[in-house]
Amino acid sequence: MSAAEALRAAVAQLAAAGVPDPTRDARLLLAHAMGIAPDRVTLHLADTLTPDASARYADALARRAARHPVSHITGQRLFWGRSFRVTPDVLDPRPETETLIAEALSRPFTRVLDLGTGSGAILLTLLAERPLATGLATDLSPAALTVAQANAQALALTPRARFALSDWFASVEGRFDLIVSNPPYIAEAEMTALSPEVLHEPRMALTPGGDGLAPYRAIARDAPSRLTPGGRLMVEIGPTQGAQVAELFAGAGLQAVRILPDLDGRDRVVSAQNPE
After folding, report:
1. Buried/exposed code over 99-118 (b: 16+ C-beta within 10 A; e: otherwise)
2. pLDDT (tens digit per residue) in 31-68
3. Under a CB-based contact definition with an 8 Å cutoff, are residues 212 and 186 in contact?
4. What's the CA gap between 132 and 101, in Å, rounded?
5. Which terminus of the chain is more exposed, N or C, with fewer CB under 10 A?
């Protein structure tokens, strides 16, 4: 079977399974199975698939039809122009999180703390963009920290990135001029409405239970004592949580509290600053 024939059959298979964008995913998975870059697929459509590539493609398609995320199948996700290793142990880095990256990079920083790092995408992107900065990433999941450390090594950032098993600030020492976090924020009642792909991600990275605001309460309580004077705090939020998180930050004595939208116009980041 040629790659083109396999691709046509794959699109039909994924469409029948209800996958939202079957053509895109079929091409990405074909590239993965053939061991080529996704932008090279068109050049290889006339090629005959090897038995190994056919087997890899069939396995990948079966997993995608079962609604496993593409990144879990390929093991990779592009974020801010870099490739990050992704496994079922970490949250899949999402384009909307780049709103937080853009805001963090809008001003200088030298020492950054990333709470609940997951794949390490946030911390490692910030360090890659600021060669003089150093950072600490924490997570409550040992498996997630293993993924983040592998990403740091792949990006040659190990000398400037440290990792610690910690429940928010519990194992954190010192002060930072930038604290960032994309915590679990989905309310328990909202979990049943999530897409099948999201439900394949680690539950502890998705929801803290209850109203979804517990992480922000913990961050608001302890961040002021871990920020340098004038240091910045910014967190990703769900699109309905902006006012509540902003109120928590203001109530903790933080200043210049702002709610920032993502590219779709939805509230996505709350930022604040420690008093000078």
Report:
1. bbbebbeeeebebbbbbbbb
2. 999 999 999 999 999 999 999 999 999 999 999 999 99
3. yes
4. 17
5. C
Q: Quote the tokens at residue 221.
A: 């309580």
Question: Per residue, what are the HEC states of the chain?
Answer: CEHHHHHHHHHHHHHHCCCCCHHHHHHHHHHHHHCCCHHHHHHHCCCECCHHHHHHHHHHHHHHHCCCCHHHHHCEEEECCEEEECCCCCCCCCHHHHHHHHHHCCCCCCEEEEECCCCCHHHHHHHHHCCCCEEEEEECCHHHHHHHHHHHHHCCCHHHEEEEECCCCCCCCCCEEEEEECCCCCCHHHHHHCCCCHHHCCHHHHCCCCCCCHHHHHHHHHHHHHEEEEEEEEEECCCCCHHHHHHHHHHCCCEEEEEEECCCCCEEEEEEECCC
Closest CA to 217 of 127, 16, 209, 17: 209
d(CA 78, CA 86): 10
Query: How many CA atoms are closer than 13 Å to the CA of 39, on its beta-carbon side?
Result: 0
Is residue 85 within 8 A of residue 152, CB to CB? The reply is no
Angle at which helices 3-16 and 22-34 pack, to 10 degrees? 140
The tokens describing 232, both together, are 């910045």
Neighbours of 212 (CB within 10 A): 24
Query: Whole-structure pTM over 0.85, yes or no?
Result: yes
**Angstrom distance (rounded) from CA 87 to CA 91:** 8
Radius of gyration of the CA atoms of the chain, in A: 20
Task: Express each pLDDT in 188-227 by its tens digit.
Answer: 999 989 999 999 999 999 999 999 999 999 999 999 999 9
